């Protein structure tokens, strides 16, 4: 995240940037306090509900944005086992939609979690898909459809 600056003028001096004390690290706990305990608990439960969890706009069958569609396609190309996958439609619940962004400290949806760990959004998934690291992660976690022998 970029640092915001506040400009102040002192008589006879040019404007100069000053750090905004509200954005300092000692206020970080206050900045994170908007997520209610109930919403945090519900998201914790959702993240732990399957080995692979995707928070998206729409459903896997009917994604409601191109990024959600791309995320589902990537997971399909990777061979994620449908029995080890679940998705949550953030469009159905405004608290979830805003809460998941604060929970992960990631500004966009979709968001992918593997074994309760935040992986990233579509851009990260795409990059990992292209460089092979997503395949490696999913294989290590044992969430792929078993290969036929």
Question: What does this entry look like structurally?
Answer:
By secondary structure, this protein is an alpha+beta fold. It has one domain (37-141): 3-Layer(aba) Sandwich (Glutaredoxin). The chain is 38% helix and 17% strand. It has 6 helices and 6 strands, in the order E-E-H-H-E-H-E-H-E-E-H-H. It has helices spanning 28-31, 37-47, 66-78, 94-104, 122-131, 133-140; strands at 5-8, 16-19, 52-56, 85-89, 111-114, 117-120. The protein has a 4-stranded mixed β-sheet with strand order 4-3-5-6. It has a two-stranded antiparallel sheet with strand order 1-2. It is globular and about 45 Å long. The model is unreliable at 1-17 (pLDDT under 50).
Report a brief summary of the structure.
It comes from Hortaea werneckii EXF-2000. This protein is of the alpha+beta class. The chain has six helices and six strands.
What key phrases describe this protein's structure?
Glutaredoxin; 6 helices; four-stranded mixed beta sheet; Monothiol glutaredoxin-5, mitochondrial; 17% strand; disordered N terminus; 2Fe-2S; disulfide oxidoreductase activity; 2 iron, 2 sulfur cluster binding; 149 residues
SSE inventory with pairings:
Blueprint: E1 5-8, E2 16-19, H1 28-31, H2 37-47, E3 52-56, H3 66-78, E4 85-89, H4 94-104, E5 111-114, E6 117-120, H5 122-131, H6 133-140
Parallel strand pairs: 3-4
Antiparallel strand pairs: 1-2, 3-5, 5-6
Helix pairs in contact: 3-5
CATH structural class: Alpha Beta
Multimerization state: single chain
Largest sheet: 4 strands, mixed
Helix and strand composition category: alpha+beta
Helix content: 25-40%
